[in-house]
Amino acid sequence: MNILILDPYPKKSYRISKDTSGGYGTGNDFGDSFLPKTLKKLLIKNSKWPPLFAAYTYSVLKKDRHNVVYDEELPKNYEFFDLIIIISSIVSHETEIELIKKINNKVKIFVIGPFASNNSEKYLKYNLSIIMGEPEIFFIKNKDFINFSEKKLISHDVKNFNLDELPYPEYEEMGYDLKKINNLFGRGKSIPLIATRGCPFSCFKYCVYPLQQGRKIRQRSIKGIIDEIKYWKIKYSVKNFIFRDPVFSINRKHTVELCNELIQEKININFIAETHLNILDSDLIKLLKKAGLTGIKVGIESFDEEVIQEANRHTATKDDQLKKIRELERNKIQVSAMFILGFPADNPKTVMQTINYAKKLNTTYAQFSVWTPYPGTPVFFEYKDRIITNKMEDFDQYRLVFKHNVFSKEEIRYYLDKAYSNYYSRLKWVFKYIFSKNAIY
Fold it and tell me: At what angle do helices 318-330 and 348-361 cross, to 10 degrees?
């Protein structure tokens, strides 16, 4: 069968990633002054990979001997294909819909991804089918998938699926440069991969990861993860890996076993991961470093305790945050701290406290984004009458999309720009960045 996997993006001056924010995607529009614009250009140059669910889907279909083409633009000969699979997202939604209108009734269409799964009403007016949940697992389990094309919503069960059955993505064949997937934390080629899926934490109220993967933790076997790392290292000379788990190390026993295996087999890799500071302790930090951890992303979100509590977010205390970040840095692990501006309970004072706190922590990287009530999350239903945009592509995590009690959308953009400009223009950060890089390389 001739299959086109279509992954369209709007034309923007900043990076759009459909893999981030639980597969809904983000658009890294940091601000409008000189320094944020420079950072946007650097990110476009240094970081680009497809949604993992799309990469897995491509490999599953290729493994089943289909003729599969992966493209970001609709080819002129699109009517040649028997099936077109559209990669859905919130950050490219209107762009995707325009292409669906063009294709409609000419070629059978499947739409995949967590955004379409949780906002199916935005797609069902067209002649297409939505594969709910994790599409790669659907295609593995249903070799006669074309027979499902008469259904509007295609459901399937992932409970008993072994994540080790997923074939390895074929990034280069899809058109991705392994040297540009993510080299912020390391030079050379890099590969995203997973050890676990699912996230049980309380921030599911506004976080979209549970919408994509559920709240129950599912994990690959240690052997499966090691075998994949060896595959990329031997065949493609890849030494840098990005774990895309919502919360890496959430299962301590599993993480310790993985680290010990990496150490015992002397695999010698670098990897980065995202986790919660309250999961880390001295013993685990040292073990992670010995296994190859060179960079870690942690959510700080806000300085103000009342803002955090109102958002139903639980995190480490301020003293614990500083202590663990410094301990990570003493172990020569770069830290990227993530902050959110414009929480419903935020005001100018709390936002500036958060920006100043980020400067005090002075991590190698800091990411500031805007609080966003995503369609499909529980919090969206609380705010749906206060949404101030009709365009889904505005939900990019870098602009205000609801009527805030204090801020206008222009004021939030001002503080976002101020956060990036103030943080990355300091000599204290410049020296920290140079020291961190020298420590790694």
Answer: 30
